């Protein structure tokens, strides 16, 4: 049996603590150190050293590291890890600008290192099931993808707005579940919380196959909602990623004698099915897949190039809002099975 991989963690915020919990119990992995200059010793798992700097972690010797520090520091930390020959799982978004994300892709790819982005929604059971069913053609032609992601303001976020923090989830999952790239986006943003960044965005876009996307994202609502609706020629799928439930609403096929409805050439209500699906913790699955990739046993991770594309689309969202017009996106060529 091979020796456990040695993993490190940079950042002990809300997500960092979740990463620490999962890493500390992950089969085949030893969490050998956590870097956070302001965290308290009791915030790390028992027996794991709390370090002040990244060089201290590198001196311990690690096979890979999880980067969960603020987005503004992703590039700095990522480039240092790549220079040291250490793979990395970087929390989303990959970086705070397209240029920074491109530099990170180059740094890891040029050294042949395993690196990925923590777009955790890809491992949500409801979306995993939805994607498999879409690939099997159960919905037929896809017409539209609508996402709603809203809730109270997360005080842990200080360096980016709602587009980079939350909308990147929906941008990535939309391209992933449909297998289609974004070709254009039009967006409006507002800032109502007194912070320098936007806290609400509404965006409409088009994918390469002609299907429409709609994203409503904010952190100004007391209602917490995480919903993805995909509508196609045979009905629609509704994924609730808070509960990991997937429901199918079929187009109705019953005839009617009501003349006003008979003249309507759209669809009618049909059967509703809520699927029974296994519900494993998405973060644990994400770590298992990344561990396997580092071992050379699989490639089911979100690549840096896919993470770069999400940063490009999010930048286009902000550009569209700033300019007040639709922004076209160049083809990415990075979509693929994950």
From TrEMBL:
<feature type="domain" description="GFO/IDH/MocA-like oxidoreductase">
    <location>
        <begin position="128"/>
        <end position="237"/>
    </location>
</feature>
<dbReference type="Pfam" id="PF01408">
    <property type="entry name" value="GFO_IDH_MocA"/>
</dbReference>
<dbReference type="Pfam" id="PF22725">
    <property type="entry name" value="GFO_IDH_MocA_C3"/>
</dbReference>
<dbReference type="InterPro" id="IPR036291">
    <property type="entry name" value="NAD(P)-bd_dom_sf"/>
</dbReference>
<feature type="domain" description="Gfo/Idh/MocA-like oxidoreductase N-terminal">
    <location>
        <begin position="6"/>
        <end position="119"/>
    </location>
</feature>
<dbReference type="InterPro" id="IPR055170">
    <property type="entry name" value="GFO_IDH_MocA-like_dom"/>
</dbReference>
<dbReference type="InterPro" id="IPR051450">
    <property type="entry name" value="Gfo/Idh/MocA_Oxidoreductases"/>
</dbReference>
<dbReference type="GO" id="GO:0000166">
    <property type="term" value="F:nucleotide binding"/>
</dbReference>
<dbReference type="InterPro" id="IPR000683">
    <property type="entry name" value="Gfo/Idh/MocA-like_OxRdtase_N"/>
</dbReference>
<protein>
    <submittedName>
        <fullName>Gfo/Idh/MocA family oxidoreductase</fullName>
    </submittedName>
</protein>
């Amino acid at each position: 049996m091979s020796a456990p991989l040695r993993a490190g963690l940079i950042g002990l915020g809300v997500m960092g603590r979740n990463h620490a919990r999962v890493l500390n119990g992950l089969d085949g992995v030893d969490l050998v150190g956590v870097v956070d200059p302001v965290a308290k010793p009791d915030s790390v798992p028992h027996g794991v050293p709390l370090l002040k700097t990244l060089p201290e972690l590198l001196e311990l010797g690690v096979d890979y590291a999880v980067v969960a520090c603020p987005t503004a520091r992703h590039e700095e930390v990522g480039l240092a890890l790549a220079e040291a020959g250490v793979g990395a799982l970087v929390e989303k978004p990959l970086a705070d600008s397209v240029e920074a994300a491109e530099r990170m892709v180059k740094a890891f790819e040029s050294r042949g290192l395993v690196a990925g982005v923590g777009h955790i929604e890809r491992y949500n059971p409801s979306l995993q099931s939805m994607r498999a069913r879409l690939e099997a053609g159960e919905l037929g032609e896809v017409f539209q993808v609508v996402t709603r992601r809203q809730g109270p303001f997360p005080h842990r976020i200080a360096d980016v707005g709602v587009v980079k923090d939350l909308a990147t989830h929906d941008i990535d999952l939309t391209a992933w579940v449909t297998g289609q790239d974004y070709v254009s986006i039009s967006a409006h943003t507002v800032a109502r919380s007194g912070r320098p960044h936007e806290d609400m965005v509404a965006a409409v876009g088009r994918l390469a196959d002609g299907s429409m996307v709609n994203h409503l994202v904010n952190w100004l609502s007391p209602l917490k909602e995480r919903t993805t609706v995909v509508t196609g020629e045979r009905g629609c799928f509704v994924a609730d990623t808070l509960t990991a439930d997937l429901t199918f609403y079929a187009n109705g096929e019953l005839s009617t004698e009501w003349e006003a409805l008979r003249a309507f050439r759209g669809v009618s209500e049909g059967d509703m099915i809520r699927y029974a699906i296994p519900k494993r913790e998405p973060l644990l699955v994400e770590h298992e897949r990344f561990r396997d990739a580092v071992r050379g046993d699989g490639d089911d991770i979100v690549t840096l190039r896919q993470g770069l594309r999400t940063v490009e689309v999010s930048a286009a969202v902000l550009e569209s809002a700033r300019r007040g017009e639709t922004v076209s996106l160049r083809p990415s060529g990075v979509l693929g099975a994950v």
